[in-house]
Amino acid sequence: MDAASCLRRRSPRVAGESVKMTSNFRWFLPTFTLLCLLSRVSGQRKGAPRDLKCTTNNLRAWDCSWKAPSGAGRSALYEVCIENRSPPCYRSGKTNTKIPTLLPGDHEITINPLHDSGSSLSRFTLNEKDVSFIPDPPEILDLSADFPASTLHLKWTDRGSVFPHHSRVIWEIKVLRKDSMEVVKVVTHNTTLNGVDTVHHWSWASDMPLECATHSVGLRCYVDDPHFSGRKEWSDWSPLKNVSWSTDSPGKVFPQDKVILVGSDITFCCVTQEKVSSAQIGYAKCPLIHLDGENVAIRIHNISVSEDSGTNVVFTTKENIYGTVIFAGYPPDIPQKLNCETVDLRGIICTWDPGRPTALVGPRNTSYTLSESFSGKYVKFKRAEALINESYQLLFQILPDQELYNFTLTAHNPLGQSQARILVNVTERVYPRTPSSIKVKDINATAVTLSWHLPGNFAKIKLLCQVEINKMNSVQELRNVTIAGADGSRYLAAVGRLHPYTVYTFRVRCATEPFWKWSRWSDEKQYLTTEAIPSKGPDTWREWRSDGKNLIIYWKPLPVSEANGKILFYNVSCSSDEKTQSFSEIPDPQHKAEMQLDKNDYIISVVAKNSAGASPPSKIASMEIPNDDLRTEQAVGTGRGILLTWGHDPNATCDYVVKWCNASQAEPCLMDWRKVPANSTEAVIESDQFRPGVRYHFFLYGCRNQGYQLLRSVIGYIEELAPIVAPNFTVEDTSADSILVKWEDIPVEELRGFLRGYLFYFEKGERDTSKMRGLESGRPDVKVKNITDTSQKTLRIADLQGRTSYHLVLRAYTSGGLGPGKSMFVVTKENSVGLIIAILIPVAVAVLVGVVTSILCYRKREWIKETFYPDIPNPENCKALQFQKGICEGNSGLKTLEMNPCTPNNVEVLETRTAVPKIEDTEIVSPVAERPEESSPEADPESQVVVSYCPPVVEEEVPNPGADEGGGASQVIYIDVQSMYQPQARPEEELETDPAAGAGAAAGYKPQMHLPVTPAAEDAAAEDGADKSAGYRPQASVRAWNLASPDSPRSTDSNSEAVSFGSPCSINSRQFLIPPKDEDSPKSGGGGWSFTNFFQNKPND
Amino acid sequence: MLPAAREPAAGDSWGIIACLCTVLWHLPAVPALNRTGDPGPGPSIQKTYDLTRYLEHQLRTLAGTYLNYLGPPFNEPDFNPPRLGAETLPRATVNLEVWRSLNDKLRLTQNYEAYSHLLCHLRGLNRQAAAAELRRSLAHFCTSLQGLLGSIAGVMAALGYPLPQPLPGAEPAWAPGPAHSDFLQKMDDFWLLKELQTWLWRSAKDFNRLKKKMQPPAAAVTLHLEAHGF
């Protein structure tokens, strides 16, 4: 009830507003209406048809169905009537019927069950909006697989003829993989229905090789008819179509031999019946992805570039190995630097650089096609391997009558292709080949014809060729030649302006007009041009011999540029008015001829001849016009040459001639000559022969009246140098206060410049004194005289001191510098008057003194006698000494007695009780080492009393060890030399003040110089131990003398005295008893004084 | 007591000298010392053996280079694939008893045929190689192998055996058909090198055996001297 009221209530409103509905709302409305309808139908009384539902699959007819009333039999017949339609009713034996499409708007439909009495009529309101549009499932015409490309191709028809309108169709395609029907791709595809059946295609490239698993494809569609206002729905899916790969081979890996781009992702699968244990690509193992059955796959991401033979992918089973090879590379790069040019206008060579390598070789290597668009022709380039360091090039044959070529170079490999283009006018791109077969042919001595071969068809264009001409020692020359082109022939070019008899080197290169590129230079061709007659006569000069009878003709060899060939000989002739004299065929190396001429005027002509002919004659007059006012001038050059100037002579009839020679050279004086044009007034004469420091003589000749006149005579130097020798000088005269020096000239060769003067140095000085060195160094005591008058040859030096040695040096100088000096020593003479006076005065004084002395002596002779020579008394008269007469008589020869007659001597009494070992020598013969205890002075029982008498007759005894053993009294006493002047009691004092010394002395024999028992002495003893132990050498040590020996009586007495005269003296002889070095000193019994002895004393010290 | 050396008479020493001179004079005529005659197949077998060993050495270098060119896993030391599709290659492996029972002719014929085949295959290999350096090495090896074939032919000729008939086709059907994938081609190349190596080993054994067989027993050279008057 509610539903019926709903329909009744809403329907008029719905119908009234439907026109205004928006398209969005239209969808909602039919749904709502259908619901109301169904509600109404269901709300009808039982027994009437219900649930009228209409759909369409083609928009041409509606397929309406309803539910039969309950209880209706199988044979029920229904009459469906549509209001306002013709025919209005349709009968149907089933609960559905097709009715033609109704116009938009509500239509009342009644369904009346005809043979069912229990059923009643049903009324429905039907609108297009209530109708659903569901197209039939599409039909797949074909599904095919391109296995190598892993691509599925789907083909189906849209059955467009079925639908009344053009409408848009959306197709949905799904791709399923494996038996488990995994959806791998769902894609929509839009088409339009256009009233006819159209077959559509769709392709899909699988990321997995299609061989790996079964692939299925399904399809459905949605027709979006804009005229249909009802509900539009997707069709059902079409039946699936499958694609699978079957083989009878035991196992295969896919894809096979595929070429892919580096960096791509790729899936490999192995189709096999066996269980795959592992898979690897290159060295890398990969995880397996299991597919249907035992099939497996591996997925490779970002594949890297392959080696030449490709990358191997291997699947390993228990029994087998299956694999494939993949080639990962790059598509061809755009060909770089494409350039097309021709060498011969027969073919065009295009070259290019392939750019980035593709990493693909062999059959997958890039192939190139060069196609020309105007002619449509092409050439191909294919190489199995990539070229390394080699240009890619293709030859395209030039077509007749075509100059413009539009080339496209296409590079192609399995991964793609690229192109480069170039448009060329072939006549403007000619790079000719290198000219070859150069030949040279003479035209004359100064012109040749050059010919060369240049392959190519240049008939329509002009050639621009360049001839390079090289001459020895000359700059190279380039000459351009334009030649009309020809077809492969030789080309000729005349080359003129050459020098005769000259070696030339030719080479050629060519280009075309308009210029594109020069060819490479041809090989060089050397050629010697032929000879021509010498262009000038030789440069001549003549010299008269000094006797004036013979004339020597000189000429210079012609320079190569004028000789024009090899000069074979010269012809010389001289002619005067009267006679002609000639010398024929003087061979080339000779460049002078001498002829005897009288004093007539002759014209001498010289002609040079080569194989081509004779040169024009060179003429010179023999006459020499004397010049009286000629004087020789001096000139100095600039270092390289010398400048000569002269006044202009309007009468000059020919060129000036400057000749020169070495001034010291013998006649004829001619080194060389030079002709100077007649209008010149100066000439710089330069020559390689000039040397600095050499004097040259230059002569300038003017030409007047067919004869030469010497105008100037100049001696000069190119550069002045200092003289190399010193002037040779001698001393002519010497007086007490002056010296006259004379010198000679220096020879010109050694002067090396114009003499400017001499420098004379002098000073006092002896030979061999070092003071003389550097005499000319400007010291104040050196006097210098500068002699600038070069004609002066003598010099007197005055104001000198007499009888004095002088050092003289003379040096010459030029503008080039000071020459070496010659030195000499001269002693001035003595002043004779002074000498005489100096001798006479002393002699006179001496004589005078002698005379006076003699007189005085004579007068005082008595006094002198008394004073200087008194009478000597007789000693025998001496009474004072009579008590000693016996003794005196026995020793009358002693001088002491003579010197001090009768003077009592001192008597020294030495206290014998006092043990003074220093003045005893009792132990001299007792080796301490043997009997050390005996060396003690206390142990010595016998001490002597020695009394010296006046004069004590003491016989010096050499201590004899053998004789003295036993301690016999000695007759010798030893005292210090100094003790003679000292109080004799000193030893006692010493003993008191220096008991240590006494103790030390008591140790044993103490010789006259006891070695010090000090540490220093110890060291010395230690050092000289070897020597000491050898024997007794006490006095030998000088050092010991200098040391304050504790044993020395004086050592403690005078400490301030460093020197101690340790050597004892005999009291009567006053001589050193033991000289410092007495090799013959008595032996002390073999080691009486020894190193051991020294040690023995040490504890007592 | 030592027996005193008997002084030879002057006539005796002259006789010894004359005898020595005669011997020297006749030495060039002794057949056993003359090498100008036919030396037999020995030297050529030795040469063939030497060539086989040389080729073994050469192949070792070439195979290393070529397997590296093929890439992994072909250059891996333990790579040992099944012999797929390499059935056209002559097999060198043979039962030891069978090998021992071969006679010289059969032995040489098998060698000759095998190397004829292998040479053809190797030339095919050379054509496919993409690397120029490798192609040069292969060409050099082909030349050497051609030399070995010539040597074997020479030995057969020396022993009086006829050469086997040339193959029906000028070259075996080595050129890969479209179905022959690059990987199978590489497998074939691998097997070609392997078989070649095995054949060279076998040939070395064959020729060593042949050499020993052909070597004459250590013949004592007896100088038959015609001592005229001695």
UniProtKB/TrEMBL annotation, chain A:
Signal-transducing molecule. May have a common pathway with IL6ST. The soluble form inhibits the biological activity of LIF by blocking its binding to receptors on target cells. Keywords: Cell membrane, Disulfide bond, Glycoprotein, Membrane, Phosphoprotein, Receptor, Repeat, Signal, Transmembrane, Transmembrane helix. It comes from Phyllostomus discolor (pale spear-nosed bat). Residues 334-433, 434-533, 537-628 form the Fibronectin type-III domain. InterPro entries: FN3_dom (IPR003961), FN3_sf (IPR036116), Hematopoietin_rcpt_Gp130_CS (IPR003529), Ig-like_fold (IPR013783), LIF-R-like_Ig-like (IPR048497), LIFR_D2 (IPR040817), LIFR_N (IPR040901), Type-I_Cytokine_Rcpt (IPR050379). PROSITE patterns: FN3, HEMATOPO_REC_L_F2. It is a single-pass type I membrane protein. This is Leukemia inhibitory factor receptor. GO terms for molecular function: ciliary neurotrophic factor receptor binding; cytokine binding; oncostatin-M receptor activity. One of its GO terms (cellular component) is receptor complex. Belongs to the type I cytokine receptor family. Type 2 subfamily. The chain crosses the membrane at residues 833-858.
TrEMBL record, chain B:
Keywords: Cytokine, Glycoprotein, Secreted, Signal. One of its GO terms (cellular component) is extracellular space. GO terms for molecular function: cytokine activity. It is found in: Secreted. The keyword Glycoprotein applies. The lineage of its organism: Eukaryota, Metazoa, Chordata, Craniata, Vertebrata. The keyword Secreted applies. It comes from Phyllostomus discolor. Pfam families: PRF. SUPFAM superfamilies: 4-helical cytokines. One of its GO terms (biological process) is cell surface receptor signaling pathway via JAK-STAT. This is Cardiotrophin-like cytokine factor 1. Its main location: secreted. The gene is CLCF1.
